Amino acid sequence: ESVIKLEKIVKNYKVGTQIVRALRSVSLNINRGEYVAIMGASGSGKSTMMNVIGCLDTPTSGFYELNKQDVSHLSDDELAEIRNKEIGFVFQTFNLLPRNTALENVMLPLVYAGVKKQQRIEKAEKILTEVGLADRIEHKPNELSGGQRQRVAVARALINNPSILLADEPTGNLDSKISEEIMQLFAEIHRKGNTLVVVTHEESIAMHAHRIIRLKDGEIEADYVNPNPVY
Ligand code: ADP
Ligand code: ADP
């Protein structure tokens, strides 16, 4: 069952009189439950692709179907709504609210979704427990280690049951031991049936995914099953 279907996606940026061709006719299908790493050198188009997949930006041309719905030509408001419902984001910089506790950070997407307070708290406590932070619920980001902050961010990303967990260099700010722990958490999330897309330039991170897509100069250079995923 297709979750992400890109068809001949082109993304051009205008810079003065120059046109930068960031994605040059990218076609791709990702099914529910897949664990995909998108790799490529700096400038190859990874961020642009993540922005399109994450409904943060629309393509110049081509089609994007998310859960069989065409999202290639939506307004910013419509895109924002799809994003909140369908996509859980994890960033290198965690992007947590500094004045709020782990619990409050994780509950926030449920506030936008209109879930009642008691249910928000129960759901957030449950998911924080699942990511191993049962005893850190009242901690604020600056009272947590880097790895714990990223766990909070993963919990927040998952709380709405998104169709895709989309992670951009999720271990970029973590040392290698903590990075492995986060990738172990991703493996568990994958085992539970979630669809994961991880954008990274790090080979050691990509090797956890079950499918590897390599971008080069805005095109897919390779797309193959990882014969030997870690975990
Ligand atoms: P990566 O994430 O792999 O480093 P990007 O998607 O950021 O690649 O960039 C792909 C190409 O598009 C690069 O040549 C980059 O300079 C260009 N680019 C990216 N974002 C913009 C932008 N907002 N305006 C103009 N050019 C951009
Ligand atoms: P790590 O070495 O894994 O990065 P730290 O040494 O930063 O972790 O933190 C160790 C433990 O102490 C963590 O479990 C974290 O929750 C807790 N902790 C760290 N900083 C604070 C703080 N300012 N206030 C309360 N607890 C903290």
From TrEMBL:
Q: Does the keyword Chaperone apply?
A: no
Q: Return the GO cellular component terms, semicolon-separated.
A: membrane protein complex; plasma membrane
- What sequence ranges are listed for the domain ABC transporter? 4-230
Q: Which Pfam families match?
A: ABC_tran
Q: Name a GO molecular-function annotation.
A: ATP binding
Q: Record keywords: Transport included?
A: yes
Keyword tags: ATP-binding, Nucleotide-binding, Transport
Q: Which residues cross the membrane?
A: none
PANTHER family xrefs: ABC TRANSPORTER ABCH.1, IMPORT ATP-BINDING PROTEIN
- What family, per the record? Belongs to the ABC transporter superfamily. Macrolide exporter (TC 3.A.1.122) family.
What is the protein named?
Answer: ABC transporter
To which species is this protein native?
Aquipluma nitroreducens
